[in-house]
Structure formats: structure tokens, C-alpha cells
Amino acid sequence: MAANFFTSKPGSKSSAKHAVDPALQPWVEKYRPKTIDDVSAQEHTVAVLRKTLTSTNLPHMLFYGPPGTGKTSTILALARQLFGPDNFKNRVLELNASDERGISIVREKIKDFARQTPRAQTVASDGKTYPCPPYKIIILDEADSMTQDAQGALRRIMETYARITRFCLVCNYVTRIIEPLASRCSKFRFTPLDSQSAASRIAHIAEQEKVDINKPVIDALINVSNGDLRRAITYLQSASRLSSASIPPTPILARDIQEIAGVVPDKVVNEFARALGIDIEDDDMDVDGITNGKTNFTAIQKKVKAIVREGYSATQILSQLHDLVVLHPLLNSKQKSACALVFAEADKALCDGSDEELWILEIALRVNKAVIS
Fold this sequence. Notes:
Layout: H1 13-18, H2 27-30, H3 43-55, E1 61-64, H4 71-91, E2 92-95, H5 103-115, E3 136-140, H6 148-160, E4 165-171, H7 179-182, E5 186-189, H8 195-208, H9 215-225, H10 229-244, H11 254-261, H12 266-275, H13 297-309, H14 314-326, H15 333-351, H16 356-372
Parallel strand pairs: 1-4, 1-5, 2-3, 3-4
Helix pairs in contact: 5-6, 8-10, 9-10, 9-11, 10-11, 12-13, 13-16, 14-15, 14-16, 15-16
């Protein structure tokens, strides 16, 4: 990945190998923040790191938070601003989950890079001046997948070579980082993107790529991505490719986003919920199979078979039905609690590999019993 952020001399083997046509580049890479000021919705972290650019005194860091919130993008943008494109390759080592990071890698590759004295700053080819402090940065992406032994071996390396090497650990689950390692780092928590920041970024990318989308489509992208901007951008690019596959291009609709994301359409979930006796108001809803407050096994079974026949995921149905029940304004706490117990039991069974159709039917009958009792 580091190769994307430095330039090579024209005609060299490196430039031929790493040259990427922007039209073929994934949008998540194409629109990755170039500076820390471009990072969305992480104001506290950006404010602290902005000061490190002026002082160039960077501690060991630990970035943690949900996927797609900008952790890797932030440290890469900071490194580019510190070292510039010409020094980036020599000063930054990035290892992610695709690399083996057992204790042997820590003792060999990481230690060898950490002990090297940084080269003197080269004159930037783009005419800009970079701070280029006298240390290197090692980025360990998804550090929570490192073995306990590897994390233990890393402690001494971080201390021994702190003068010339700084570490940035990036992970989703901070609890999987051993405490002696976490205590050596300054912690930065990345939160899921709020709807406004995500919508602004998505609209900007759509404008740059000349993709015609409206507010319902943006809302659908935000809802299915759950604060993961990387996922939202990927879905947008997939929808754009799908739209441009026909001539003239077909308009992108919210249901297209749900289809790409593997989410069960709202209409299907609402019809299923109504068949279970949950009051749903939707003028566009098919009224067949409504139980009207009574248990109707045949009608419920018909709905379940229709869902299974369409190939929808039982886990996805469970997740969306859970959200609908928990947020429903007309169900009382006792009803929601009874449904929640059913969802928990079903989730455990599905994780253990139980039959999906039987458990969707089980969920349906027990939720129906809970809401009409």
C-alpha cells in the first residue's frame, strides 16, 4: 500500500509496476484523505495530530475503533505530511493483516527496520517543504490479530529504538492489545461517522465521479454501512458500475443499494413484521398474510417460505427485525423483552449452523405470540 503514496522516476521499473490508472482505482483508495485535515468526523484526533506536525514530536500511538472510520487513512496522511512523497518509502513501514506477524516477524523484519538510522532528508521533488523529523514510523495495521508472544516481543523494541522509530498500532478491539503495550502508546479512539459527515463525503465523491444520486440513496448508503465510510463508498462505486452498464444509464435507487449490500428490502421486512401482528403502516405493502392480532400458522409459514425462496439471509432478517421491534413506538417493554430473548436464542442457533428456514419460522411464531399476548 505504501507504494501508492510515493512517486518514482518516469521510465523506472518501480513506476511501471505501481502506476495505477485513476479510472481503474477503487474509490476508497482514490479518495483516501491526503492530509489529516481531510479526515472526516474525528475532530479530537485531528486536533491533537495537527499539533504534532508543528512540533514533530510524535509519541507511540494506538488507534482503535470500528472498521471504516479512518484509522489507517489518518496515520498514512500524517506520515505523508511529515515525510513527503520522496521520503515516505524509506521512513514508513506498514504491515497489515495479510502479513504474518508472529514473533519471528517482530524479531526480524520489524526489528531490522526499527534499528536502522533514518536517512538524511532528500529535496522534495514536488517543491514543497516537509518537517521530516529524525525518526521512522512503523504502522501495524490490525494489531489486535498479533499473537501474544509477538506483542510481548514488541515491548522491548519500542523502548530500545524509541529515539529513531515510532510505532502506530491500528486495531478494532483495544482489549486484544496487551496492557504493557497499550500503556506505552498514546490512545486515540475513532468513532463511527455521524450521518452528516458521511453524507457530505459521499455527496462529494458522487459529484467528483459525476454520479447522479439523491437524498434517499445517500440515506440508504449511510443506513446499510452503519458508520463504516469505506463500506458506503464501495457500495456507491458498485451502484455506479451497475447503473452505467446500460445505455442510457439507469438511475440509482435506494433499493439498488440495499440489493448490493445484501440487505433485505424494507418492504419485505415490513410485510413480514405485519404478518407477525406488528402494526406497520405502509401504503405500498402487500396485505396478504396479515394475522390481524391472531396467530395464523398458515399465513406466517407462507411468508417464511417466500423469504427463504428469495434467498434472503436468516441472520440479516433477524438483525433487521430486531431493529424494527426494539425501535417500534407501539410495543411495550414486556413485548420487546420477550422478542429480544427470542432473537438472542435464534442468533446463537444460527451461529451454530442450525437450519435457517426452521429458525425463521420459530422466530416468527414466538414473536407473534409475544406481540399479541
